[in-house]
């Protein structure tokens, strides 16, 4: 899984795609506002920095910024994009961040579902590494695909709309999703804590980890505290159980504090 995904992230057209991205996602904007009085004292690590979409917002306001990615090509694109600050970027794999000492960072970001392209075992290793290099009381903010959102995608009935053209396009995408994941049944999606799925991103080339929010909380519990969840689409916090169970976002953002 990890090797196949790495191949995608070194491909020229994919690197180009990420280096063109400019906008913050709504939940990222929420966090930018939430910590507005603290950024200037923070040492930040931006994991899976891609083409530097988030760099332009954060590197200017934090005390120190480092962007890392396991794709050499993504890092080269960042160094090209931020030519005068190329030293901010480094090729590092999140599964082994041994070049960073313990307690190095105040704020660690792993945005836009970068954590979802490694295996289950590697994901736990990444979380372990983050808790090691993050300062106690520091923050980790990341997003991950939601199995709850995917459940809806696996149900053909949810793709019917009043607009016949939209229904047609939805049905094609639904058929492709089911074709690329023919070994996974809707029942399996409903009854699993997590699943590895080839979704439509980058034309079904990536294998991505989708997790049930409760399972994500369980994975975080041993090393992180004060876990909060945000809708990626609205940027609003999911506060009540009702907010969470009604949510069908394809991915959610998690903010937590390192123990
Ligand atoms: C979906 S892209 C997001 C890029 C960027 N953060 C953004 O939001 O535009 C995910 C990024 O995570 C990187 N990535 C995936 N697994 C990684 C790992 N184990 N270590 C470091 N980077 C990783 C990929 O190379 C890719 O650049």
Automatic annotation (TrEMBL):
Q: Which GO terms describe its molecular function?
A: methyltransferase activity
Q: Does the keyword 4Fe-4S apply?
A: no
Q: Cite a single GO BP annotation.
A: methylation
Keywords carried by this UniProt record = Methyltransferase, Transferase
Under the heading InterPro entries, the entry gives:
Methyltransf_11 (IPR013216), Methyltransf_Superfamily (IPR050508), SAM-dependent_MTases_sf (IPR029063)
Report the residue ranges that make up the Methyltransferase type domain in this protein.
45-142
Q: Which domain of life is it from?
A: Bacteria
Concerning PANTHER family, the annotation shows:
METHYLTRANSFERASE
Name this polypeptide is given: Class I SAM-dependent methyltransferase
């Amino acid at each position: 899984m990890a090797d196949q995904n790495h191949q995608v992230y070194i491909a020229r057209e994919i690197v180009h795609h990420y280096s063109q991205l400019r906008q913050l996602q709504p939940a990222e904007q929420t966090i930018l506002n939430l910590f507005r009085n603290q950024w200037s004292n923070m040492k930040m690590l931006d994991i899976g920095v891609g083409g530097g979409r988030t760099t332009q917002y954060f590197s200017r306001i934090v005390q120190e910024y480092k962007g890392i990615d396991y794709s050499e090509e993504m890092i080269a694109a960042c160094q090209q994009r931020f030519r005068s600050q190329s030293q901010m970027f480094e090729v590092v794999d999140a599964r082994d961040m041994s070049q960073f000492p313990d307690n190095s960072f105040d704020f660690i970001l792993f945005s836009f579902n970068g954590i979802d392209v490694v295996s289950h075992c590697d994901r736990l290793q990444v979380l372990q590494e983050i808790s090691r290099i993050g300062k106690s009381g520091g923050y980790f903010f990341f997003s991950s695909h939601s199995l709850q959102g995917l459940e809806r995608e696996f149900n053909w009935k949810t793709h019917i709309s009043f607009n016949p053209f939209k229904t047609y396009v939805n049905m094609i995408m639904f058929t492709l999703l089911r074709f690329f994941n023919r070994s996974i049944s809707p029942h399996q999606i409903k009854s699993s804590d997590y699943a590895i799925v080839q979704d439509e991103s980058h034309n079904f080339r990536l294998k991505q980890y989708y997790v049930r929010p409760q399972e994500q909380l369980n994975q975080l519990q041993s090393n992180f505290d004060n876990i909060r969840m945000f809708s990626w689409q609205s940027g609003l916090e999911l506060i009540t159980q009702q907010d969470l169970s009604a949510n069908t976002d394809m991915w959610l953002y998690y903010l937590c504090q390192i123990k």
